[in-house]
């Protein structure tokens, strides 16, 4: 069995806007209201009130970590006006996680910003960095004993999202209903805007500086990894696209304590650019190809590009209504993770996306959760994959037969 780092995290993740409900002061709430065809987050799955129940389910199953976020739009409802009560809520979440034996991995920004921030030119506003830094400084007041802090989630996706409602820039991004669900009319994600990307790197470094001063946390950020590969003869095109889409951000992680790898699928690059996902029967509910091997590609590319920054897999999972497929996918992804560790890549944890079925940025249909939620009653129903992953966590790996690639053994729930 692969030897994992001591204290290896076995967890599941959520993001505030996707699970809490009624994030009315955020830019995404506004976007949902004014984008025709977009579903609303509404009450989401009411984790704002039910977080203890959610954490208990994860801990009881055998997981050792929970990744969740602090919502900036709640903590700073107006510029410079911070809410002690909102921050105290997140401190209670940290205490609850610790009480259940779950190591918290706390994200400070997961796609959403306060509405006032977005309305004032967002990340390109003259005071953007200063404002983010002020929020991070305020939030660090509750992070003194938190071991893992992510400044920002998927800046490379955020640098696409910021243009979704901009009337002038990036026509391609404006047409997107959401960047996380493949759109048959625009099957290829537009590139992140480099100008925004550079700003986000700056914001990450500014936040890291504050967190290093104010806390003992390991600080990093989490990058969406598309596990791009070159078709024969297109290696130069791959390098060019990969820089714009992810390497800028991976290079921004140099000097961090860890980098978060977030991996779901893989795509090829040919002379025309990224090749759309094939229309295959096993495509996931977001329209992505079923590619559990993507995690191995993502880990190796991240390790190489960051120059050996320790890695936490902060997201990996599949949008499927078939929980057996979720177990098969995750089992295969973990085999690739173990192979990377066997090759000397320093991986400190595996945090599955997602703990709960939740609001997938404008859609409710793609279900990534280890736990189903009845959206009328908010009743939680753990799926077999939760018990399965908890068992993997207890064992510290897959069963021997599954680790060697015997699929019949690896999918047993
Ligand atoms: C994001 C999550 C999202 C997931 C699945 C990542 O892009 O961080 O918020 O739900 O992937 O699409």
Describe the 3D structure.
- By secondary structure, the protein is α/β, with parallel strands linked by helices.
- The protein has one domain (9-410): Glycosidases (TIM Barrel, Alpha-Beta Barrel), CATH 3.20.20.80.
- Helices cover 40% and strands 15% of the residues.
- The chain is built from 16 helices and 13 strands.
- The strands form three sheets. Strands 1-2-3-4-5-7-10-11 form an eight-stranded parallel barrel, surrounded by eight helices. It has a three-stranded mixed β-sheet with strand order 6-8-9, with helices on one face.
- Residues 407-413 have low confidence and may be disordered.
- Bound molecules: beta-D-glucopyranose.
- Beta-D-glucopyranose (BGC) binds at residues 15, 18, 153-154, 157, 180, 224, 262, 286, 315, 353, 360, 368.
Gyration radius over CA:
20 Å
Number of domains: 1
Global shape: globular
Average of the residue pLDDT scores: 95
The set of bound ligands, ions and cofactors reads:
beta-D-glucopyranose
Q: Can you write the helix and strand succession as a string?
A: EHHHEHHEHHEHHHEEHEEEHEHEEEHHH
Which fold name fills CATH's third level, the topology?
TIM Barrel
Q: Which structural class fits the helix and strand makeup?
A: alpha/beta
H/I helix tally = 16
Note the beta-strand portion.
Answer: 15-25%
Q: What CATH architecture would you give?
A: Alpha-Beta Barrel
Name of the CATH first level: Alpha Beta
CATH superfamily descriptor:
Glycosidases
Task: Give helix % range.
Answer: 40-55%
Count of beta strands? 13
């Amino acid at each position: 069995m692969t030897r994992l780092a001591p204290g290896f995290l076995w967890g599941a993740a959520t993001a505030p806007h996707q699970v809490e409900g009624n994030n009315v002061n955020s830019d995404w709430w506004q976007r949902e209201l004014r984008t025709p065809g977009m579903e609303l987050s509404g009450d989401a799955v009411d984790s704002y009130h039910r977080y203890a129940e959610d954490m208990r389910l994860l801990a009881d199953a055998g997981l050792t970590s929970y990744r969740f976020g602090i919502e900036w739009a709640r903590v700073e409802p107006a510029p410079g006006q911070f809410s002690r009560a909102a921050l105290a809520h997140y401190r209670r979440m940290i205490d609850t996680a610790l009480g259940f034996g779950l190591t918290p991995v706390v994200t400070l920004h997961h796609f959403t910003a306060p509405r006032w921030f977005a309305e004032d030119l967002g990340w390109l506003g003259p005071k953007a960095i200063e404002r983010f830094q002020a929020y991070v400084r305020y939030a660090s007041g509750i992070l003194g004993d938190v071991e893992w802090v992510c400044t920002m989630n998927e800046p490379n996706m955020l640098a696409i999202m910021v243009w979704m409602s901009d009337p002038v820039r990036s026509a391609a991004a404006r047409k997107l209903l959401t960047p996380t669900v493949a759109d048959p009319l625009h099957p290829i994600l537009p590139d992140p805007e480099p100008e925004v990307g550079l700003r986000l790197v700056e914001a990450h470094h500014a936040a890291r500086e504050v967190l290093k001063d104010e806390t003992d946390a390991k600080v990093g950020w989490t990058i969406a990894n598309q596990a791009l590969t070159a078709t024969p003869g297109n290696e130069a095109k791959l390098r060019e696209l990969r820089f714009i889409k992810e390497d800028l951000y991976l290079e921004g992680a140099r000097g961090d304590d860890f980098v978060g790898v977030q991996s779901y699928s893989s795509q090829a690059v040919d002379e025309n650019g990224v090749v759309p996902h094939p229309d295959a029967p096993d495509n996931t509910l977001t329209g992505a190809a079923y590619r559990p091997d993507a995690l191995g590609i993502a880990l190796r590319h991240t390790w190489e590009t960051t120059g050996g920054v320790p890695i936490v897999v902060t997201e990996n999972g599949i949008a499927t209504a078939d929980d057996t497929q979720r177990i098969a996918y995750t089992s295969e992804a973990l085999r690739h993770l173990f192979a990377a560790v066997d090759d000397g890549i320093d991986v400190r944890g595996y945090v599955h996306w997602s703990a709960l079925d939740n609001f997938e940025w404008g859609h409710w249909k793609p279900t990534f959760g280890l736990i189903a939620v009845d959206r009328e009653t908010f009743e939680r129903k753990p799926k077999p994959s939760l018990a399965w992953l908890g068992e993997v966590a207890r064992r510290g790996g897959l069963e021997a037969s599954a680790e060697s690639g015997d699929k019949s053994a690896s999918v047993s729930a």
